[in-house]
Amino acid sequence: MGGLTEETPMGLFIVRHEHRADHCPATDPAMGALLLNHLSRVNTRRHGIDIHGEAVAQGAHALYMIVSADAEDRVRHFLEPFARAGTVEVLPASTCAGVVASGGCAALPVTDPGTPAADPEEVCQDAMEAGLVVHRAHPLNGETSIPALLGGVVMPNAHFYVRNHFQIPLLDPSAWRLEVVGRVERPLRLTLGELRAYRSQSTVVTMECAGNGRFLLDPAVPGEQWRHGAVSTAEWTGVPLAEVLDRVGVGTGAREVVFRGADHGTVDGRADPIRFERSLALDVVREAGVLLAYAMNGEPIPRRHGYPVRLVVPDWYGVASVKWLTEIELTDRPFEGYFQTEKYRYEWNGADRPRSEPVTLQRVRALITDPAPDDEVDPGELTVRGVAWSGAAAIDRVEVSIDARPWQEARLVGERRRHSWQWWELRTRLEATGAVSLRARATDLAGRSQPERPEWNRLGYGNNAIQEVLVTAR
Ligand SMILES: Nc1nc2c(c(=O)[nH]1)N[C@H]1C(S)=C(S)[C@@H](COP(=O)(O)O)O[C@H]1N2
Ligand SMILES: [Mo]
Q1: Which of 155, 228, 295, 404 lies in the 20 to 30 Å Cα band around 192?
Q2: 275 lines ligand 1 (CB under 6 A)
Q3: Is the Cβ–Cβ distance between 376 and 360 less than 8 Å?
Q4: pTM passes above 0.85
Q5: Exposed e or buried b for every residue in 108-145, given b needs 16+ CB within 10 A?
């Protein structure tokens, strides 16, 4: 093993030291002090190791440590004083995130030789530390825990849900280019600096995964078992796609715009790896206020959310908002990519033949953020709060029903918003004690509301059934 360089990956080790009861070094004050100095930050840094935790099992004369170092030899060298006092075992180890992300204790770490991609272990560890509820470690999929929604209109980037189909690509911002090709009059190739020089716009947008709430479908359907947290809101800043289209000039016969992400991998039923690609009709692109976003809540878009540039399609289910965008192609025919034609479609078993429809606008929905499921609340005054949104129109009203009693209208908080969710609250009274059911139902200005029960479809999309939160009053 070479010397300690900046690129040397650090290994994780578990150390176990034991000594005989009648040879406990800690009983001798001088020896004890020596050991403590040996374990000091100054000394461990000198040895090129980092101690994450150490503890002595009480009465067992056994010491355990979790350390990292670039090589096992370094750890052994550091442990020489302990070896003189008894036995030393050094076990190469992984974090739980590393083990789960690579598919088990016996598996080798995941690597994809094709593209530089983010380290799955690191990506997963970050998500856990941010408090996301992880559904799958690799590729990372995690939802926002509902209490984390509480607060302002937008939420911190760290808490924004993550939906990935492939590994997160590591794109170098200086090498990144956005190609605009196909049925255009003047094809274009933009650097990040050139894109940022265009007129920018900021929009607060609520993004929801079409699979949000899938766990409630009966019979169960395959796919990530999202609860209610595959939805978040951020302020996105970027260039209106319409500006770039004006610049290239839409060519004759152009009908659709295809967006390509830099991420890729294999999927069921296809032999060759594919990229993440989606299309939108040209008229949708013009009307929807689509952004080529480079900032999220005022910061560069984090890696897992599409750095350096992603599409943001307000009001549409998240799948339309292609991350790690590198190519835009105008075409004269309907796009038939995997994520367009085989996934992200509502499919029902029709009377005589199966029917299918693409997933488009987010369906109207209210979420209760407070109280949380299984909370204990005091009888008497109760405030129920939450958010509500709809892709088709602004929210008209939110109503709450307690224990299936008549609906009470909640107050909408702040101004009416078009592309982002709306906070609402209801101050009410709880007369009874014991188990209490709280339900919230939103209606938008287009007159759409929520169904009582999830509407089943084969791939489990668009479940906007009225949410029920059960709490206990005592
Ligand atoms: N390139 C790329 N873009 C993507 C995806 C993806 O896997 N790859 N997932 C889509 C889906 S299904 C959703 S719901 C949103 C999620 O965005 P987020 O991870 O920033 O929350 O990104 C969309 N864009
Ligand atoms: Mo999604």
Answers
A1: 155
A2: no
A3: no
A4: yes
A5: eebeeeeeebbbbbebbbbbbebebbbbbbbbbbbbbb
What is the set of domains in the chain, with CATH numbers? 11-93 (3.30.70.1060), 157-358 (3.90.420.10), 365-473 (2.60.40.650)
CA distance 164 to 318: 11
Residue pair 363/461 in contact (Cβ under 8 Å)? The answer is no
Q: Would the CB of 260 count as within 6 Å of ligand 1?
A: no
Spatial CB neighbours of 219, under 8 Å, sequence gap ≥ 6: 456
Distance 318 CA to ligand 1 centre (A): 6
pLDDT in tens, 133-165: 999 999 999 999 887 776 677 889 999 999 999
Cis peptide before 120 (omega within 30 of 0): no
Closest CA to 398 of 428, 419, 367: 367
From the CA of 320, which ligand is nearest? 1
| Mutation to probe ligand 1, out of 166, 176, 205, 209 (largest number of atoms < 8 A from CB) | 209
Please answer whether residues 264 and 177 qualify as being in contact, where contact means their C-beta atoms are separated by less than 8 angstroms. Answer: no
d(CA 348, CA 221): 13
Using CA atoms, how far apart are residues 245 and 330, in angstroms rounded to an integer?
Answer: 10
165 Cβ closer than 6 Å to some ligand 1 atom = yes
Q: Is the pLDDT of residue 369 over 80?
A: yes
For residues 423 and 313, give the distance between their C-alpha atoms in angstroms, rounded to a whole number: 21
Phi, psi of 365 (to 5 degrees): -160, 145
Average pLDDT on 213-236 reads 96
**How many angstroms separate the first and last alpha carbons of the chain?**
63
Atom of ligand 1 nearest to the CA of 344: 12
Q: Which residue has the higher pLDDT, 35 or 103?
A: 35
Question: How far apart are alpha carbons 303 and 117 in whole angstroms?
Answer: 10
The mean pLDDT value for 248-266 works out to 97
Q: Is 163 near ligand 1, meaning CB less than 6 Å away?
A: yes
